[in-house]
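ingest -> validate -> predict -> emit
validate: passed (alphabet ok, no gaps, 488 aa)
predict: started
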Amino acid sequence: MSQSSARGVTADFSDAEPLRFREAVRRVASLAAPLSVALLVAAVAQFAVVGLLGHLGADAVHVRSLYVPISFCILAVQEGLSISSQVVFARLRGAERSERAPAAFRRLVTTGLAATVVLALVVATAAPLVGSALGAEGARAAAFTSFAQLMGIATVFTVPGTVAVGALRGWGRPGLSIVMALVLAVTQVLGVWIVGDLAGLGITAVPIFVATAGLAALAVAPSLAKVARLPLTKRWLSVDATLQRGEQRTPASEWDDEAAAIASLATRTLLAVGVPVALSYMLLTAANLATMWVLAPFDGYAQTAFGIGSTVQGVIIVPAIAVGSAAGVLMHQHSAAGADRALPSLFRAAVAIVVGSYAVLSALMVLTPNLLAGLLVADSRIQAALAEFLAIVGPSYFGLGIVLFLLTVLEQLRFGALAVTLNLAYYAASIGLGALMAHSTGDASTLFRVLAISNLTGLGLLLPLTSILVRRRSRRRGFAGDPRRAEP
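emit:
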């Protein structure tokens, strides 16, 4: 496929000369902006669902709160699958191997279905034990177990849509993923509101409409893929007029070998990229639980402030994830086309964007902790604790955002084991040291100060390390259009 024939992907992957900085900034920003919007839509939808559950009574809110650790495990599997899909399709796009897309999509979906079925069985078995460990008793314990088991089943229905979203992003059409995000958000929020709240079904409406949203995403995926000129099945491929003009088609006798090669690429990417991404999310879950445990001996306001602050942080990190994903997509596209020399320019451009973004965000956190706390909570004591947390940790989001961006890049360039190791070291050092100091001083804010310092010191280590690894990777030729050479 010629570059001009792929609608919406105007980047030239030629390696004739190094990529100019301004052009690199433009390419990264054009992908990162719609990715940020899609991620924010998903975050707002989750806030809306939680808000609706608040109208269903204290039991519904309590059950949803108990479910948080399990939800992070499910999210870990979904994100690992989505990022793997993004990487695979970015490389196929850069290598101009559209005809290989159906085999990759099929392998990613089947592997994802197998993983989520196993996850659903694990959740079904572990839910009663988790509920008991978290102190749920009687009717609440039964409600939590039922809810968690239904959510595990509902997750299976989200797999094809999750893979399709990753494919659209990797193909260079993240704007279309906004449509998918809106479909998911509207289906879930309206479903929970109408059926759960107005019709009185209660919290059971959440898993029902998670599954329904997954089916809705699958329904719109063919239309979005056609707009993107992304053939996800052999049937779509056969009717794609763009692919039938001027491109040498793969002979039928060679199709099985090509499909096997691409399926192998998908599997290796899941292992090299998807598994580390999932482990990183699980580490984040463990770190949040460990921090809550450290704060337990102090007054409950410190725990509450940290919990609400973590929600704020979930929104703050959106630009980091978006820019890191955009950089990863472009690096894989260029590498697959043999334009490895463009990788350092793309990385520098992404760093410039993320540094500028977090300079602004951290300045806002310095100026507005009291205002933000007042907007988020009404209780004066919780408001004061939250304002203190944001005043201490908020400015360090400058370092945290850049560090998360760098870790995202490392994960997508298949340095996942390194990223997981660095994450583990960061959490162990910051939470461990913070716990010791907080208990020795009798002041929970000491832990927050240690976390803030860790966010900034981590930047000093990770930025030069990632720069070196990207430069080294740029001196290795990508598979230059050959799907059998899966390693970037």
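The mean pLDDT is 83.
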